[in-house]
Design a protein that fits this description.
A hairpin with a 6-residue loop joins strand 13 and strand 14. The strands form 4 sheets. Strands 11-10-12-13-14 form a 5-stranded mixed beta sheet, with helices on both faces. It has a 4-stranded mixed beta sheet with strand order 3-4-6-8, with helices on one face. By secondary structure, the chain is α/β, with parallel strands linked by helices. The chain has 31 helices and 14 strands.
Amino acid sequence: MLNSFSKNLKDDISAGIAVFLVSVPLSLGIAMASGAPPLSGLITGIIGGLIVSQLSGSTLGINGTAAGLTVIILAAIQQLGFNAFLLAVVLAGLIQIGMGILRAGVIAYYFPSSVINGMLYGIGLILFLKQIPHAVGYDRDYEGDVNFIQSDQYSSFSELSHMLNSLSPGAVLISLLSLASLLIWEFLIKDKHPLLRLLQGGLVALLVGVLANLLLANFYPAWELKNAHLVMIPVFEHPSDVLSQLYLPDFARLFDPKVYWFALTIALVASIETLLTVEAVDKLDPYKRITPTSRELIVQGIGNICAGFIGGLPMTQLIIRSSINIESGAKSRTAALVQSLLLLFTIIFIPGVFNLVPLASLASILLLAGYRLARPQVFENMYMAGKYHFIPFCATVLGLVLTDLLTGIAIGMSFALIAILIENYRGSFYLRETHIGNKTVLRLSEQVSFLNKANVQRTLKQLPPGSEVVIDATRSKFIDYDIFEIIQNFRSEAQLKGIKLTVENLRGYGTLPPPETVGAQTSASQQSLTPAEVLAILKEGNERFVNNLKSNRNLLEQVNDTRKGQFPIAIILSCIDSRTSVELIFDQGLGDVFSARVAGNVVNDDILGSMEFACKLAGSKLIVVLGHSLCGAVKGACADVELDHLTGLLQKIKPAVHAVRAEFDAKNPPEQPVLVQKVAERNVHLSVEQIRKQSPLLDGMAKAGQIDIVGAMYDVETGQVEFYADTQTAAACCQAHPAAVAPAVTNVIPIGLQALGKSAV
């Protein structure tokens, strides 16, 4: 912790100085525009850095009095008086603490990114527009004003024309010199030496401005800037006189309804501005740290209580000062502390020195800050993000520039809401996949609200008659009743239109319980199943696979459930082809099936031994020989390929090749694709026969009805598995004489080996 503090100290001191330089005139300007004592704005800034920033979860946020509260503060002071107004500030702080405890800070997470980016860009443009008059010496509007219509009833645009009639040559000269020195220092000199980084370009600009004005006073007095063109901190004869400017709340007005009305208004407006700024500051933070918003409301409430008790104005987190803090390289909240300590020191000991700073020189710093917030690249990036982000962004920018902060945000939020509605209508509420033929899968998202109603209806109406449709609600956690009703009505419509409809996990409407989790097979579940039931399970699993569905499984939970033993219900012999993973094809989980794989799904002694283990010792009820279309091993056998050890393997497929060729006239051999497919099918049948002939154990169990041995063919193009009915004979054979066959089969394997069946292979 100490190492981190010392490592960041030089950056934080430098950034704190930069923020301090703009905090003084901005705080004074907002206080005077609010009809409050000038010192009250500075008091808020000091509390913001000494208390609020240190308790806050916002690392780089700067707190102080905000221009967005000016109108409310002015009205409150006029109607209540300053001391009763301070009581309203204290009560507003208590309200904010209550809001934070109730987790009202989550509101911040509902501000769209487009609106936040628009706020930053709009503030940058406003800064630029508002500082141009100050840069030329037209200082009728107060520093820190962000409203389009100013207190003098001019607008941000009309002010630009009026300033032409009041140009001050001295102000123009000072602002140009300050801006030039700022740019030269920041981009050419500052990085030349590590020690130079401690000296902020803003401080250099102000020093140049002060020096230039002093030179004008001595050599060209007509151009000197005086009085209203300079920063004006109240000057006291003795530092202790500052205490006389501290005001206390009027608790005698505690039961005045107007006090509570203004307290509620201040609390709500200040909280909204703070939450907006918090989101914006987190976006600007180079380390992308996330501020806990409800905690921020509590801390802001503490700050307002402190401010109200000693004569300060209401506070919020401030976007302009925070952005300057970040751009100046701040790393931690120490920068806010430095800023507040400098404010306190200046007020008490050197107010007269700071009053030498020309507002024209300060304007150069804020012009650069405005440009950094409103870089052209930001506009370009938002345009590239698409119209649903770009339009709310532009609406927010125009709203801020042409009205005020809160109205501009409200305009931006309105456009963002419309964009969200349109995007929900036009966008996809499901994942749509088109399969072989005319099958359509509609996978519902986690939240399906009434906003999706029109889109769902339109999509279902467009489905052609005779098509196959799957509606999968497995992932859904909430389905609005309107959507549920549409799907239920579509069941009847689907029958009339000849649509094959599959609805998966539509568990009702409203907040839905999670779909039932399929667990691993247990000894009880394995023993309770018949071979026919296991076959049905595999068929159902393949149907889900073909429909792009899958059972809800917690595989990690199944790992835990199977750590002490396994109870697979089937053993499946398949090819090593990478497209024929049986767990996927049959939608099975961990511990559900044995998988034996060899090229061409041929049978050998090792495979037979594995099957005997699976069925006799481990309790599996079904053997499946699974061939597949477009089999490479079968192609090799048909083409008489010879390759080292592969030659011997392909010889095991040759009987199927000879059998198929014998069925055709030698003069009219089948085309290669037809031959390969028929050989693959015949190879499955022959493999089933081999299992029965070469393993008396398995054949006996099949005749006893304990297991079944079946063949199947997997289509790699459709995912469909076709089971061959003519290989499913064991179940029928065994039912007539189960008792006669079962004992003989049992005695084939020594009893001592049966314990191996439930252990992991």
